Amino acid sequence: MASMLTRGASRLSRQRHMGWMSAFGRSAVRGFAATSDDAKSDGGGCEPTFKGAYCESVAVELGTERTPVRVGFETGRVARLTDGAIVASMGDSRVICAAVCSRDDNPDAGFFPLQVDYRERHSAFGKIPPTFTRREGAPKDREVLAMRVVDRAIRPLFPKSFSRDTSVQAIVLATDQSQDPAVLAVNGASAALFVSSIPWNGPVGAVRVSVLGDGNEIILNPSDKDVEASKLTLFYAGNEDRTLMIEAQAGTADEGGVPESVVASALRAAHEAAKLLIEPQRRLQRAIGKEKLDPVQQTPEQAKLRHDVFDRSSEKLRALYKEEIQCKHTRGKRMAELKDEIVNSMTEEGMSFTNNEVEQAFFWVSSRVMRDMIFEDKKRLDGRGIRELRQLGAESNVLPVVHGSSIFERGNTQALATVTIGKLIDAQKLDAPVGPDERRMMLHYSFPSFSINETPRRGGLSRREIGHGALAEKSLAGIIPAAKEWPFAVRINAETMESNGSSSMAAVCSGSLALMDAGVPIKEHVGAISVGLVMDEDEQTGKVTRYELLSDIMGLEDVLGDMDFKIAGTRGGITGIQLDCKPAGIPLDILIEAMDVASIARSAVIDEMDRAISKPRSRDDSEDGAQFTTVRMDRSLIGRLIGPKGDTIRELERTTGAKVSIHEEDDAGVDDQCTLGIFAGTRPGLDAALEKIQLIAWVPKEGDVVRAKVVNQLAYGWFLRLPNEQDGLLHVSEYSHTRKVDPLKDDIFQIGEEVLVKIKDVSDGRVGLSVKALSPAPEGTEVGRRGPRAGVGFERNEDGSLKRPLRRLKD
After folding, report:
1. What are the DSSP calls for 156-218, one per residue?
2. I want to staple 576 with a disulfide (CB 3.0 to 4.6 A). Which of 21, 39, 41, 475 is the partner?
3. How many CB atoms lie within 10 A of CB 623?
4. Cβ burial, residue 139 (10 Å; 0-12/13-18/19+)
5. Tell me: the pLDDT tens digits for 96-111?
6. Closest CA to 217 of 229, 201, 205
7. Cα 589 versus chain centre, distance
8. At how many degrees (to 10) do helices 141-154 and 181-195 cross?
9. SS3 of 494, please?
10. Contact 609, 525 (CB under 8 A)
11. Which residues have CB under 8 Å from 340's CB, separation 6+?
């Protein structure tokens, strides 16, 4: 209890000293009274959500309609016990972002202990969660992806010597569903860290941009409608000078990928837009920012330890690297043995150090030696040149039974992919404030521990698996034909068999191969490569003094290098991008150059993929394996295909084993046809389904002879179901030329019995059937006359017509 009181008093004292609002009583911020008028700080442009908050803002425009709104950052009214808290706003969207760090350093942290959490409350967009408990559960994939985006945007800007456990949490409180709240979360997290006492070299700005038309129209803050029509959508974060995070996905509006020149223009536009969001954060920090904590500086003893480790190991490391060891485990084992040798020698000499200090020193030396080899010798750890790829391998149709399969290899990175095709109803339903309502193409990435020769950990999917799967999915989604052309859902399983860097890019390649093997009508392959970077910077100015871009980085180059720039695309352009960086940002010009490097490497990868399979596999001549096709059907017949309560289509699927997807286009007034997708496990099943569908689409004509099933019988005749699922009437008078029958008394037909009939007439959607018309009438029989029944009905003339005026028959 005493410890809690001491901590609380310390925090309150710090808040009063910095001019922050008192945690108790009426709030005030550096002379700003708790009124909405006084809370405005930029000429009346920012109205805080919570009265008494201090707010800074900047004007932006939304989408193609260029709707003017303000992006605001307010603080001081809610979450006052945090190190820093911001309510970020755009239009009617609100996201609260809070930053907190522990009181003490974490001496055992091998890397910076940062945790990012992002949650979207259903109440933010007016819904009650559909879960059993009616509350939000574990994070959804979309939320996990937002956590990763925020993490990648802010992590590089923490001082390298800062090792306190740090947490950044973002909660979506309200959203007008016009913009992705994850963008606000990045900006809000930046502002929260910037005004807090946590040492951080921000701020950053984050935006989304979309490329429309022929690539010459770039819009900021696109709506869902804009994104759907775009060639490319970028999620970008950066500071005034450098890029920190990129997520990009080509749209379905451009199946062939987006040229590098167009992507470069979009990146430059995004960077300029992101810079606009930095100044209001600076104004906010100048007004009410807390005094920053001093990160632990490197002691003279630690500096000496680094130099000692360098002197003892640099030449041995260089010699080890020059052996050009290809196996990652062999190289890793040799490096671990060398580190142990250095530790033992320093221990024998009586030097004092911690394991973590030695680990960090050896890591720095390993990175420094690798960089010097690349800069001076143009050689990499496995002997490759800076633009040389590892050995490639690709193979399709590697597994039985599955709809499509492939394996792709790049050095010691190996990915096995399978494809499963299903109905449109198999698409994943999504429940999010923005974005599509469903995912028709799903890619699930797995990273089993055996792929890196480790024992398994406990737990479910990792954030890494979700993130890598999302990147691979976005890279391939744009090449899947639209539902109007190909009305199916498709799932790709990408299993990492071996991993030595860029396993997500291998998942893209193996997924593209498996799609073609399954016969999915994609026009060309999507290849993927990861470009690395090593760069030296001037310690005083921070300017880059030299750098080299590395094609196809392996695992150790990723760990010791500065960048992992994942780029996927076709020969014609880019379909997906993800940037991870370790320094405090990468100059944009270097990234644009890296895209050209990736384009050359990607072409070599696609060449290898084309050798395995260059076009979608045709199933026409195959009796085995998955079979699918599409047919067009008149919209007016869809109800007949589905049947009462779905009975007809369920019976079709049950008897044939096929699955039928129905895609009705939005332009119903223009096109009276819709597309059916028929999928079956075998050729006979597909043929049987097609035959039944053709029968349903059959239009009855007078004179046709067909078999129909008895579905009902009444006093005046029988209702028979035709092959097209339409009902027709077989009147009692059409059963026999000579015999008069009563369906309810005479045992003539049974319900479900099939009867051969002739179509006698078709009018106004009604079909008249006849059995007697199948055979000629006996001699002496008057054809076409229907005699009156005694005691029933009205008097008739000799030709069967009613007498006028009407008179009832008498017994």
Report:
1. GGS-TT--EEEEEEEEEEE--SSS-HHHHHHHHHHHHHHHSSS------EEEEEEEETTTTEE
2. 475
3. 9
4. middle
5. 999 999 998 887 777 8
6. 229
7. 28
8. 40
9. strand
10. yes
11. none
